[in-house]
Amino acid sequence: MERYNKRNTTRYGGQQVQALSDVTFSVEPKEYVAIMGESGSGKTTLLNILAALDKPTSGKVCLKGRDLGDIKDKEMAAFRRQNLGFVFQDFNLLDTFSLEDNIYLPLVLAGKKYAEMNSRLQPIAEQLGITHLLKKYPYEVSGGQKQRVAVARALITKPQMILADEPTGALDSRTADDLMELFTDINRNGQTILMVTHSVRAASSANRVLFIKDGEVFHQIYRGNLSNEEMYQKIADVLTVLTTGGDH
Amino acid sequence: MFYPKLAVTNIRKNRKSYFPYILTCILTIMMFYTMDAICKNKGVYEMRGSDAMIAVLNMASWITGIFAAIFLFYTNSFLIKQRKKEFGVYQVLGMDKRNLMKMLLCETFLTAVVSIGIGLVLGILLGKLFFLILLKMIRFATPLSFAIEGESIVRTLILFGAVFAVTFCFNLLQLRKVDPVDLLHGGNVGEREPKTKWLLTSIGTATIAVGYGIALLTESPLASLENFFFAVILVIIGTYALFTAGSIAFLKLLKRNKNYYYKSNHFATVSGMLYRMKQNAAGLANICIMSTIVLVLISVTVSLYAGMQDILGLRFPMEYHVAVYDPDQERVSQMQQIVEEELEREQAQVEEKEELVSLYLVGTVSGNTVSVSDGMMNLGGTHSIVVTTLDCYNFMEDKNETLAEGEILLCPAKGEMQGNTVTIGDSNFHVKKYLDSIKMETYEDSAVTPNVYVVVSDQNELYKIADKYAFNGQGSIVYHQYFNPKGEKDACTAAMNAIYERGAEIDGTYFEWRENSEEEFYQLYGGFLFIGVFVGFLFLMGTILIIYYKQISEGLDDRACFQIMSKVGMSRKEVKKTIHSQVLTVFFLPLGVAVVHVAVAFKVLTKLMAMLNLTNVPLEAACTVGTVAVFSIFYVIVFLLTSKEYYRIVK
Questions:
Q1: Chain A contact for B98 (CB, 8 A cutoff)
Q2: Which of B161, B348, B391, B497 maximizes the CB count within 10 A of its CB?
Q3: Does pTM top 0.90 for this prediction?
């Protein structure tokens, strides 16, 4: 059970700005949630708080009933490593490591044995179709392939939840579609995913979409039995309302 | 006014890298000018025996010039590489290459004017101070004035003007080679993992091993002089090869060991080091070699200077030394007469006196046979054979030994020769007694080659041997007289000057006295020390600057890497630890290797110093250790200062 409650968060950037206020929502295990909103709506702050990279000024974030605010700074890195997997817009792969080593990175930091890491990697690499790339280096492969490697790196720790920050942002539309299909697959295998995006197309692959405006949850829609196309339409409608300033 | 203004803004904007560069320019120019001005100083020219020092100073000013040129060029290329992106932006904003060229010209001109201007002013001001230090070191009492040397100013202007012109041309070439898109992307292209170069690694290992082997195994000081340069070249090659290829091969081996590599404290460090070594190996090897040179230069000159009294002591067992080569009774008594007359004139007496006649031969020893060679000092295995008479021996040692014809007393080199009969040349001698030590030893330059001392029964015997060798240029007979005078110091000096002058009229005589030599020695070794410290300082400055730039540029490179690591779940502490161990390794590797080089070279250095009559090994060791310690302190200070900057960038 993963549950997130949050109130009154602020972000500092020279000037004090209240980025989020009164955001409360929970994510169930095995759910696939997308969070949408325009730039400046507080998406990134929200993700940073969920990832425990930032601390809310008030309110709390709980993972399986454990308050993230209670975790000591010293243990935070380990906690993040064990429970969360990250996928970033710009991949964040290390050029100095082979793709294989990039994927191993969190496990190495966790002190796992090579044999175990290797046995964990094989099925994941197979699923993501990157087995033949493992010995290569980031500069030798395409953007879509890099993002698959990043997904593998997020999956290999068997995290409670994957946090994805604009995962399709640096990809062309076809590669983006492939990646979203992959996310759907992974989610079907039981992986909880929370994705922040402003791409309607990307969001339409999620089971639930939360809309954030001016730091508040503005609206949310569930997929139910809708197809991706229908979901796309529904999200687009909400966004129209959102941008034309309709009230909820 | 647009371009000059832009140039000023640019330099100020890049002050982190430009100010140290300009500072180095200033200091280098100052040092070059000072050194050159000292060479040109009239007073120095008129100083007695200053030829050697001027020659050394001249050489040093050339070294400074060459080093300055190479170094400023190197630093400049680093600066320009860093600014590629900036030029890209200017080009995108609409400046064409002509505009950029004008901008660069203004910048170079500005840098040149500021550095040469301040450098010369400081050189003229501080030159006086350096000059006073030099005079103090060479114990020169008479005050000399340090004038502004027009010629040196012109030389400085020409040299450094040319250096700046060349850097400007280089920068233009850099601009010409690239288009804005490349410039914008600058260094963002993913770097290839370095390949292991086994051949270069083995060459490096072999050259270092041979170089070290030569340094450690060479016994004879004469051989060591020639071998030393060979060893130095081998070790330089080896250092470059091992830093560039060896380090990578080593890291790759670590990486191949999966159980070692996939550990949280090794993972990032090993792969980080791989790239770091790929980019920096040459720079680090430079630092290492420069540090080694600084250490050797300073420790040798300091040792020589500090050991001056030892050197004099070895050379002068007594205050005065008269020698007559191929003596005959007439010239010897003439010489003795001169000494007596002059001392008497100044109312001084001889207090202690020792006389000896000896025959010097060169040869090799194998078993109990001494073969006399043809007078040329061969490298390695060469022995000096010193033959003297029983009279001399008994007189000097205050003993009453007797020898029959064909009998000798023998004092061989350590661990050599035993048995009752030895062969010298083609005659056999019966050894009556082996001597452990002989007083004569202190009167000879015993350090250069192993010596064999032979005491024969009388002069006839000595001349018998001499007849065979000495008179066809294979050896020489020398009459030595050592004595200490008693009397007033001024009177003695006057007497000695008179003896010196009168003695010169007799063929084949040589006369030297301690006081006079001391002056010359201080000039020579004081000058050496001055230059050693001067050039050492120059190299140290270069080292510091390279290190500083390394830290800055690596900080920029590493920032992205460590940001990703912390995002993926590395704690701040782990990140810091990883950075720390990498920075520490990169930083102290050159120093560590330099210290090892110096330690290995130490034995050869003591031998080379022995040739300069300094045999006080503990003193030399102390000077070397002291130099290493002082240098390390400088190094650590630089490390602390620059790593602060580094961490600031990475965070």
A1: no
A2: B348
A3: no
